[in-house]
Amino acid sequence: MKKELIFLGPPACGKGTQTDRLAKFMNIPHVDTGSLLRAEMKKGSPEGKRAESYISNGQLVPVELVAEIIKLRLSQDDCKGGYILDGFPRSLEQAEILEKLNADLDEGIQTDFRAIYFDVDPDVLLARIVNRRSCPACGTIYNVKYNPPKVEGKCDNCGTELIQRADDTEETAKKRFDTYYEQTAPLIDFYKNKGVLKTLNAQGGIEEVWERLKEVVGL
User: Fold this and answer.
1) Active site residue 133
2) Catalytic status, residue 90
């Protein structure tokens, strides 16, 4: 049966940490919308050139074009067994587009579609963001409260001085939460009403959440 998964949840809920791991464990692609757009632009495909024309002018890529690029990716052979879609949908409009897209691609195929909601207390989310530090050299992410480096301020892997991203502040985080709750949170009820929503307790350590995630996915 073809497994089709999307992850829902506010910023810092832990989706990114678990996505790659689950994709490798299930041997299905992790389709990241942002990376997909950048790859198409780098290739210079017709869709990539159209996307670049919007981005270079400081405009958002139209959702219809994003959906075209996603459909091309999901129609490739390595997605026949399923996929984890990251960064789409982010609104009710996009969720309806994804339904039509899947209906076209999955005609005559037995599928198991699940929307997994990463449920975390808002105070924990805020603490995760404002305490987050990253290595500018190798990209490793730390949290000074929950997952600190062995040496304060230094990357465990390469010894580089850790930095705090400009948008990892309380003020910016609250703005991101406002955007999420306004635009994306309605997807929770959308998928609940369709009977495909699975809620994951995403609080706790990475390994705890991983074990719960496997159970929710049905592995």
Assistant:
1) no
2) yes
- Please, are residues 213 and 22 in contact by the beta-carbon 8 Å criterion? yes
Instruction: Find the catalytic residue in 2, 38, 90, 198.
Output: 90
Catalytic residue among 165, 174, 175, 194: 165
Q: What is the pTM of this model?
A: 0.80
Residues in the chain: 219
pLDDT tens, residue by residue, 88-145: 898 899 999 999 999 999 888 899 999 999 998 888 888 888 898 989 998 888 888 8
Q: For residues 125 and 169, give the distance between their C-alpha atoms in angstroms, rounded to a whole number.
A: 12
| 145 given a catalytic annotation | no
Average pLDDT in the 16-32 region? 90
* Catalytic residue check, 21: no
The side-by-side arrangement of strands in the sheet containing 2-8 is: 30-32, 82-86, 2-8, 111-119, 197-201
Whether residue 38 lies in the annotated active site = no
pLDDT tens per residue across span 207-216: 999 999 999 9
